[in-house]
């Protein structure tokens, strides 16, 4: 096997913004010591995630690895559901790596699965904390999505997306109750919460 690919998603649960799927491809004999500290993105500080993200970009520039992050929008999530949205982004991320499926071993976190042509694939519960390739994919997806929500925040100043990144914090839910939705909101995720906030 020539390559190892790790895949994970970020943003499955927020009330607003896209879901992001990260895919990281390394040579089968990749030396993970060059990325010390890689673990589940949820267990790292924002500063540490950003440091690892930038180190990974430097490694990509030197052709030591490749990574990509694909997203599915809130509108897509509302139309098709979160699981199809994740599958669509996952397939796109893999295709962007432009590698023969038979040359790769693919490791995925949780309930994720790759398209059938990736015959050497394994889904690992908790893999984002045990497999460095999955952990790195989770970091790349999380940082990419967080940066996007920060960039979009000034366009929607009522919601403070730069603070909560679209997650269902008490302050975010209050804002939805006060001013309603914007185009970044997943209305299918919000309708019940909105009713509860107003009751």
Automatic annotation (TrEMBL):
Q: Does the keyword Cytoplasm apply?
A: yes
Q: Which domain of life is it from?
A: Bacteria
Among the record's GO biological process terms, what is one? DNA replication, removal of RNA primer
Q: What is its EC number?
A: 3.1.26.4
Citing just one GO molecular function, the answer is:
RNA-DNA hybrid ribonuclease activity
Compartments where located: Cytoplasm
InterPro entries in UniProt: RNase_HII, RNase_HII/HIII, RNase_HII/HIII_dom, RNaseH-like_sf, RNaseH_sf
- Catalysis performed (reactions): Endonucleolytic cleavage to 5'-phosphomonoester
PROSITE patterns tied to this protein: RNASE_H_2
Task: Outline the extent of the RNase H type-2 domain.
Answer: 2-199
Report the sequence similarity comment from the record.
Belongs to the RNase HII family. RnhC subfamily.
Annotated protein name in UniProt = Ribonuclease
Query: What is the species listed in this Swiss-Prot or TrEMBL entry?
Result: Candidatus Kaiserbacteria bacterium RIFCSPHIGHO2_02_FULL_55_20
Q: What is the lineage of its organism?
A: Bacteria, Candidatus Kaiseribacteriota
């Amino acid at each position: 096997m020539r390559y190892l690919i790790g895949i994970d998603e970020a943003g499955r649960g927020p009330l607003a913004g896209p879901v992001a799927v990260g895919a990281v491809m390394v040579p089968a004999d990749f030396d993970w010591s060059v990325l010390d500290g890689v673990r589940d993105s949820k267990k790292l500080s924002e500063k540490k995630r950003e440091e690892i993200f930038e180190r990974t970009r430097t490694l990509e520039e030197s052709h030591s690895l490749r990574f990509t992050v694909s997203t599915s929008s809130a509108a897509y999530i509302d139309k098709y559901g979160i699981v199809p949205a994740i599958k669509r982004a996952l397939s796109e991320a893999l295709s962007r790596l432009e590698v023969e499926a038979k040359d790769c071993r693919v490791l995925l976190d949780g309930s994720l699965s790759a398209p059938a042509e990736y015959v050497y694939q394994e889904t690992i519960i908790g893999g984002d904390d045990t497999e460095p390739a999955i952990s790195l994919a989770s970091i790349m997806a999380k940082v990419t999505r967080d940066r996007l929500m920060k960039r979009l925040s000034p366009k929607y100043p009522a919601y403070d997306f730069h603070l909560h990144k679209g997650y269902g914090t008490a302050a975010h839910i209050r804002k939805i109750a006060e001013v309603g939705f914007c185009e970044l909101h997943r209305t299918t995720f919000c309708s019940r919460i909105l009713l509860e906030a107003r009751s």
